[in-house]
Design brief:
The chain is globular and about 70 Å long. The protein is α/β, with parallel strands linked by helices and 260 residues long. It holds the Pfam family Polysacc_deac_1.
């Protein structure tokens, strides 16, 4: 058998294998919680920022969740279900936003509330009150309107570049609590980067869970400090790109790739 036939045979076997995997996620859908990672909902930045969605795009995705019988929960809902056996709704998902842009308050929050949904926003605390970021008052209002608040460090630095982890992990939590926010229990790793030391620092400072940038499903067996999360960007192929990202998440979980 020549090399061309060998190559074609390998490609054919791969296509058959992947076809079987894709079929399996539809026939036997994964069980668990998908966490989605967003950043901005802003019509003014959608054409220049890959991390921005327009309000129309975000609404389309919220409608998709509702029409496909997904139900939003908070990070605390998931932890309480794992720890105390509290019941979760069918097809639970968690919608999260990183960084703390002001459009999370002006655009995202009203849209989430109008759909009767929940969301979680992870705040880089030294950006609070700066241009294009939420204020202290807005953060408090968000906590009172179904938006759970977590920490995204103080300065949005990858934790591999931080010498004193307490300055980013501990102080960001304390700063928000000292300024009147409800207790901060959850954390998002900047750029999805973490270390053994950063995980231990989270535990030492009474965080209950943290999210990564690795797509997949979360079960009660998933490491709570390495929760899987699917990034949602301003996809080149729009709504189809969004659906592909969900399918990719299911495939990665089924194949056990980067699952914690």
């Amino acid at each position: 058998m020549n090399l061309k036939k060998i190559a074609l045979s390998i490609i054919l076997l791969f296509v058959i294998f992947m076809g079987g995997v894709i079929a399996s996620v539809y026939i036997y859908p994964p069980k668990g919680v998908m966490i989605f990672e967003y950043h901005r909902v802003n019509d003014d930045t959608v054409d220049t920022d890959d991390y921005s969605l327009s309000r129309e795009q975000f609404q389309e995705q919220l409608d998709y969740f509702k029409e496909n019988n997904y139900h939003t929960i908070s990070m605390m809902d998931f932890i309480r279900a794992e720890k105390y056996g509290e019941e979760l709704p069918e097809n639970p998902i968690i919608i999260t936003f990183d960084d703390g842009y002001e459009d999370n308050y002006t655009n995202m929050m009203p849209m989430i509330n109008a759909m009767g949904m929940k969301a979680t926003m992870f705040m880089a605390t030294n950006y609070i009150g700066k241009e294009n970021y939420v204020s202290w008052q807005q953060l408090k209002e968000m906590q009172d309107n179904n938006i759970e608040i977590g920490s995204h460090t103080a300065n949005h630095l990858p934790l591999t570049e931080v010498e004193n982890l307490d300055n980013e992990i501990k102080l960001s939590k304390l700063l928000m609590e000292w300024n009147g926010l409800k207790t901060i229990y959850f954390f998002s790793y900047p750029n999805g980067v973490y270390t053994k030391e950063s995980i231990q620092c989270l535990k030492d400072n009474n965080y209950l869970a943290a999210v990564t940038g690795d797509a997949g499903y979360n079960t009660f067996k998933t490491d709570k400090y390495l929760l899987q999360r699917t990034n949602v960007s301003n996809y080149r192929f729009g709504y189809i790109g969004f659906q592909w990202r969900i399918l990719k998440t299911k495939i990665l979980y089924r194949l056990g790739i980067n699952q914690h």
